[in-house]
Fold this sequence. Notes:
26% of the residues lie in helices and 26% in strands. It has helices at residues 4-10, 14-26, 57-69, 77-83, 113-116, 154-163, 175-183; strands at residues 31-39, 43-45, 72-76, 98-103, 122-126, 139-143, 168-173, 189-195, 203-204, 221-227, 230-236. It has 240 residues and is an alpha/beta fold. It has one domain (28-207, 221-229): Dihydrofolate Reductase, subunit A (3-Layer(aba) Sandwich). It is globular and about 45 Å long.
Amino acid sequence: MTDPNATLKDTPTPATDQLDCLAPLMSHPEWVIAQLGQSLDGRIATESGHSHYINGHESLVHLHRLRALCDAVVVGAGTASADNPQLTVRHVQGAHPLRVILDPRGRVPPTLTLFQDDAAPTLHLVGPDVSLPAPAPHVQRQSLPLMADGQFPPAAVIAHLQAQGYARILVEGGGVTVSRFIEAGVVERLHLLVAPLLIGSGRPGLAMTPIDTLASALRPRARRFACGDDTLFDLCLKSR
């Protein structure tokens, strides 16, 4: 007969699961991780852009843990404009990271919470030809060169942040930004939070350059963790 106490002892708890999941991040002083929350059919929003909330509360807490561990959190202009996020740590203890907005054309509205709320420092990255009024004191505006497609080179963004001392970087969204950073080979891990939800249409999570055969597909090492009703896939995209 199995010892019930031994079974309880050997069964992972939510706390040990969280520690196991985050250990690779806590044990290294420098990394780049991306995060996406999506439905079972790979959607991060409906056709109209509605996304609140695909994932459950536990996934939101996990995202805030990632923010608490990182030095800088990066979002694209589309996500910043559509979601108007705060990008702060509210559901866990920890310091707020630097909030970075990738805005090559300077199209993010000045009424954005990130520009108005001084709860955390904010970095507004724009293209070299963008001219805008001076930002609030908590916002620093810097320019970076653009590629031929009018976007920032992901590697240049990472190098720019690391040169200023931001060694742990979270690329939070949206799907286009995460896809570009993964395809550029600068993301070491992807935390993919999948909700038991079928949307059936809408905006895809990852949208990368089409491939002809599965031989070209990424096959990262994967670990799975329960995150409330969601499933967290911890995907290792690059080995150290």
